Structure formats: structure tokens, C-alpha cells
From TrEMBL:
Oxidoreductase recorded as keyword: yes
Domain VOC: 8-132, 153-270
CDD domains: PcpA_C_like
High-level lineage: Bacteria, Bacillati, Bacillota, Bacilli, Bacillales
Name of the protein this chain belongs to: Ring-cleaving dioxygenase
Originating organism: Paenibacillus chartarius
Length: 316
């Protein structure tokens, strides 16, 4: 049994096809800040784009690998099924109006006494908005989203597991989440953080999904610092999982392991954050490369399509 607890989600990473279309949706329509433009360290011809609040604080960041020739994925077991964003109490009316203006169809659903607006991004990723009082307000305004209506960060996520009993045990015994209860198809867990802290898990085993555009690649959980991160790695190993070595992702350190329900988990450090190589007021403006790619910058930049965060005109 663990005595360690994660504060909640650090980031979520997904596959999409078109870099500019992704920027237009997440920055232009959802009003998030493009906090970092870098490359896939394993395939530097592909961007790695990060969107979050004004600083890209842990618990606010969704990241994307836009592969133009990617196959379409199939959302299913072994994945984050739905990425949940928290918005200020009283702002769902603003968001339903905004989504309608931009031609984004949504559905209202209820879960655990909360109302959700569920919709898809251009590649089919499932996103939902929920009002939550917890979490610091965003200081970022863009594209007509005022700060008092802006997405704060993650509310949490809905996990689709091929072995939900095993995933449930992992969330409690390894990650240190508290089981809140079950309602209908979902079991709910909560961490002590005030954002990215509520996880819903399907209670019925789901058929394995297929990776590709419109699916989540992994979910990352928070570690306070490098010292705690090393303890997390030991704990994961002691619990019978097979974590990777600690990897330097420039803006955090990371380990990865796959849980029994098929979902790829990462544990990532809160520091050093995104201001380590750009001024806080200039985040996301330049393509930032790790030192080992700098010698090839001209070639890498030549192969990447130009992108920018821009205001998007409503459809109506």
C-alpha cells in the first residue's frame, strides 16, 4: 500500500494531424496559451506543441504530436477516453454559446451531480468542460475568451480500461487517489490537488483502442520534485510495474510505465517548467530545441510547417 500521493494530472499528450488546425482550435477557440513549440525528441521532423494556462502550470497542459500522415485512431480501452477541462462556476453558458458560434457541436451530460459539455476537437479527441470552484483562475485571455470565463486547467480525465478492476487498484494503491464512489458506468477517484484531480474510470472492461490521430498517447501524473520522482520510480517498480529510466524532457523529468488496463502512465516532475528557456511573457513564440538538436536547427525548422496562435473568426 502506498503512502505516496500524486496531486493529480501533470499533462496529457495526444496525436493529431494538422499543427495549425490544432493551434486554431486549442488557442483560437478554447483560448489556451501556446506555451511551447518544440519537436518530438524521437522524430524531430514533427512538432511537439504544449497548451496551458499563462505559465503552462502542471495540471493545465495538453500536448500534441501533429503527424500529417497519421492514421485515424480509435478511442477505446487502454486510453484516456475523455479529457476534462475545468471552467469557472457560472461560465458554461458562455462556453455553450462560444462553441455554437464556432460550429462545434456539443452534448450536455450529467455525471456525479455535475453538468458537462462534451465535444470533439478537429481530429476527434473527446473533450469536456465542467464548472469547478477549485483551481486558480487563468490569467490568460486570448481570442475573445475573458479571464473570468477561461479554462483553468484540467478538471481531470475519464479513463477507458481493458481491466478496470486492476486500474482501480493501481489508482488507489500506487498513485494514492481516494475512491469517491460509483455512479452508473463510472467509478470516481480524487487526489488532493485542486486541479487535474478528479478521475472517472469506466467500470466495464472496454475493447482495446487503436492509437492514431484523435487519441491520447499517455497521461502524466505529478511528482513534486526530482527527489520525490525517484521515490515514485522505486514505488512503481516495487508494485510490479516496469518503469523506464528517468528521462529528461527539458521542462520536466519523466518515467513511463503501462498499467494492466493498457493505459500508458507517465510520472513527471513539476519543475523546472516552461520558463527555463523563454521569458514568461514570450512563451511559445520561438521553436525551442534541446541542445543536441541545435546544430541541425536550420534543417529542422525548414521541415516544420510555420504555425502561429491567431484569432479565429466565428462561423456566425
Amino acid at each position: 500500500m502506498s503512502n505516496m500521493q500524486t496531486a493529480g494530472i501533470h499533462h496529457i499528450t495526444a496525436f493529431v494531424r494538422n499543427a495549425q488546425e490544432t493551434v486554431d482550435f486549442y488557442a483560437g477557440i478554447l483560448g489556451l496559451r501556446l506555451v511551447k513549440k518544440t519537436v518530438n525528441f524521437d522524430a524531430p521532423e514533427v512538432y511537439h506543441l504544449y497548451f496551458g494556462n499563462e505559465s503552462g502550470a502542471p495540471g493545465t497542459v495538453i500536448t500534441f504530436f501533429p503527424w500529417p500522415i497519421s492514421r485515424q485512431g480509435r478511442i477505446g480501452g487502454g486510453q484516456v477516453g475523455i479529457t476534462t477541462y475545468a471552467v469557472p462556476v457560472g461560465s458554461l453558458a458562455f462556453w455553450s454559446s462560444r462553441l455554437t458560434q464556432y460550429g462545434t457541436r456539443f452534448e450536455r451530460t450529467e455525471r456525479f451531480g455535475e453538468t458537462y459539455l462534451g465535444f470533439k476537437d478537429p481530429d476527434g479527441l473527446l473533450i469536456e468542460l465542467v464548472e469547478r470552484a477549485q483551481g486558480a483562475p487563468s490569467q490568460w485571455t486570448f481570442g475573445g475568451v475573458p479571464a473570468d470565463k477561461a479554462i483553468k486547467g484540467f478538471g481531470g480525465a475519464v479513463l477507458y480500461s481493458t481491466a478496470p478492476d486492476a486500474t482501480s487498484q493501481l489508482l488507489q494503491r500506487v498513485m494514492g487517489l481516494t475512491r469517491v464512489g460509483q455512479e452508473g458506468a463510472y467509478e470516481r477517484f480524487q487526489s488532493y490537488g485542486d486541479i487535474g484531480n478528479i478521475i472517472d474510470l469506466n467500470v466495464t472492461a472496454m475493447e482495446q483502442g487503436a492509437g492514431g490521430a484523435g487519441t491520447v498517447h499517455h497521461i502524466a501524473w505529478r511528482a513534486k520534485d526530482d527527489a520525490e520522482h525517484a521515490l515514485w520510480r522505486s514505488q512503481v517498480e516495487e508494485c510490479g510495474y516496469h518503469p523506464t529510466a528517468i528521462l529528461d524532457r527539458q521542462y520536466f523529468h519523466a518515467i513511463y510505465f503501462r498499467e494492466e488496463g493498457g493505459i500508458l502512465f507517465e510520472i513527471a516532475t513539476d519543475p523546472p517548467g516552461f520558463a527555463r528557456d523563454e521569458a514568461p511573457d514570450a512563451l511559445g513564440e520561438s521553436i525551442m530545441l534541446p541542445s543536441w538538436f541545435e546544430a541541425n536547427r536550420a534543417e529542422i525548422e525548414r521541415r516544420l510547417p510555420p504555425i502561429r496562435a491567431r484569432e479565429i473568426e466565428p462561423n456566425r
